[in-house]
């Protein structure tokens, strides 16, 4: 909704439009058949294959370093999906950046809420 108001207030010329247009032209000019095929596969796996990803992630979480695995997998996957969606012109660059910022915000809030409950248990007394 905020984006809609910004577009309306600027006469359909928001300040981030030049970045979206520049990224769009970069993605279109860098296309190759193998890169397009790879991004189509990533898009399918990212969209329809989330059940497989979730099951694999669950198996990793059973191991000792589950927090690192979760963080790394979520960050590598997130960046790849952001690139894939802008490469395939499914989303604008500003859409993916806004989604990433929302994800960081929600994750930070969850971390703040949960760290008070779980962190003291994992810190040994001095």
How do the strands and helices of this protein lay out in sequence?
Blueprint lengths: L1 H8 L7 H13 L3 H16 L1 H12 L4 H22 L5 H30 L4
Helix pairs in contact: 3-5, 5-6
Can you characterise this structure?
The protein is mainly alpha-helical and 126 residues long. It is built from 6 helices and no strands. It has helices at residues 2-9, 17-29, 33-48, 50-61, 66-87, 93-122. The protein is flat and about 60 Å long. The termini are far apart.
Major sheet description: none
Radius of gyration: 19 Å
Report the strand count: 0
Strand content: under 5%
Assembly status: single chain
Topology as a string of helices (H) and strands (E):
HHHHHH
Return residue spans where pLDDT drops below 50 for at least 5 consecutive residues.
none
How many helix segments? 6
Structure classification: mainly alpha
Key traits:
flat
Q: Brief overview, please?
A:
The protein is 80% helix and 0% strand.
């Amino acid at each position: 909704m905020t984006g809609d108001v910004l577009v309306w207030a600027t006469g359909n010329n928001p300040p981030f439009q030049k970045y979206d247009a520049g990224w769009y032209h970069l993605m279109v000019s860098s296309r190759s058949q193998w890169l397009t095929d790879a991004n189509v596969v990533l898009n399918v796996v990212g969209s329809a294959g989330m059940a497989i990803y979730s099951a694999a992630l669950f198996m990793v979480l059973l191991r000792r370093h589950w927090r690192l695995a979760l963080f790394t997998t979520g960050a590598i996957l997130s960046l790849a999906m952001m690139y894939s969606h802008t490469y395939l012109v499914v989303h604008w660059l500003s859409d993916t950046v806004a989604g990433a910022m929302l994800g960081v915000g929600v994750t930070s809030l969850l971390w703040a809420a949960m760290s008070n409950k779980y962190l003291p248990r994992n810190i040994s007394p001095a």
